[in-house]
Design a protein that fits this description.
This protein has helices spanning about 20-30, 45-50, 70-85, 105-120, 135-140, 155-165, 180-190, 220-230, 235-250; strands at about 1-5, 30-35, 55-60, 90-95, 125-130, 150, 170, 195-200. Helix 3 (about 70-85) runs parallel beside helix 4 (about 105-120) and helix 8 (about 220-230) packs across helix 9. It is globular, with a radius of gyration of 17 Å. Strands 1-2-3-4-5-6-7-8 form an 8-stranded parallel beta sheet. It has 9 helices and 8 strands. The protein is an alpha/beta fold and about 260 residues long. It has a single domain (about 1-250), classed as TIM Barrel. The longest helix has 18 residues, at about 105-120.
Length: about 260
């Protein structure tokens, strides 16, 4: 099954067109879409969207780029959603050391507290790891969770292996479709197929074949899969089957 493991369907770029987006994705062959939240303000939006569309499954979490205006009681609200709103994961959480004027201490506090919730509820996590792989790994070794997905992975092979040791799959999408993305190409060729999952990160992370400034969409995942399969020199069908099984296992998704 073709599974988009990271897609922000509630993003403003999509307006109220979720029904059309999901229908187009389904026609293209995308069977499941994981919809992560980014802050308390969109927990309910993600829940409502996923309750309306059975193809979509929710994750709840506070994104590192949203912690500046997060409050401590947001963690209590997150706990309530984890207990009552049928999440498949906690996310999108992690660290972002690319943004300027960042508060690393605040990011790490919210990340660590959400890892504790993941451990308490025995849920996988959807990780944001932009220029922060080693620091994220440090937290994961200290607060052990049952794995998850390192979204939009762009680290070294050594870092990739460390995430895999901790029970994580690595998410790849549109960024790997560019000819200049040589590090990503090496990872996709050399990593065990059992460690890879697919994602769009729509409306972000546009693939090379998408004309700017159009937003990325989940229906583009099959074409992304074809390009990644070509990098590994395997059939798209084999890649789709393996990555679907990987996503199903790490997120414990129900059978279709």
């Amino acid at each position: 099954m073709l599974i988009d493991t990271h897609c922000h369907l509630d993003a403003a770029e999509f307006g109220d067109n979720q029904a059309e987006l999901i229908s187009s994705a389904r026609i293209a062959g995308v069977g499941r879409i994981i919809v992560p939240s980014v802050e308390r303000a969109n927990f309910e939006t993600v829940y409502t969207l996923c309750a309306r569309f059975p193809d979509c499954l929710p994750a709840y979490g506070i994104h590192p780029m949203y912690v500046d205006h997060a409050r401590i009681d947001d963690l209590a609200v997150l706990r309530e959603y984890l207990a009552k709103k049928n999440p498949v994961a906690i996310g999108e959480i992690g660290l972002d050391f690319f943004v300027e004027n960042r508060d690393e201490e605040r990011q790490e506090y919210y990340f660590a507290e959400q890892l504790k919730l993941a451990r308490e509820f025995d849920l996988p996590v959807l990780l944001h790891v932009r220029r922060s792989q080693d620091r994220v790994l440090k937290h994961l070794r200290r607060i052990r969770v049952r794995g998850g997905i390192a979204h939009a992975f762009n680290g070294s092979m050594h870092q990739a292996r460390e995430f895999i040791k901790l029970g994580f799959k690595l998410g790849f999408g549109g960024a790997a479709t560019y000819s200049r993305a040589t590090r990503l190409h090496s990872l996709i060729r050399e990593l065990p197929l059992s460690s890879i999952v697919l994602e769009t990160d729509a409306p972000d992370m546009p693939p090379s074949f998408l004309a700017r400034p159009n937003p990325n969409r989940p229906e583009y995942l099959p074409r992304i899969a074809e390009i990644l399969a070509g990098l590994r020199m395997i059939s798209p069908e084999k890649l789709v089957l393996a990555t679907g099984e990987n996503a199903m296992s790490v997120l414990r998704l129900p059978a279709a």
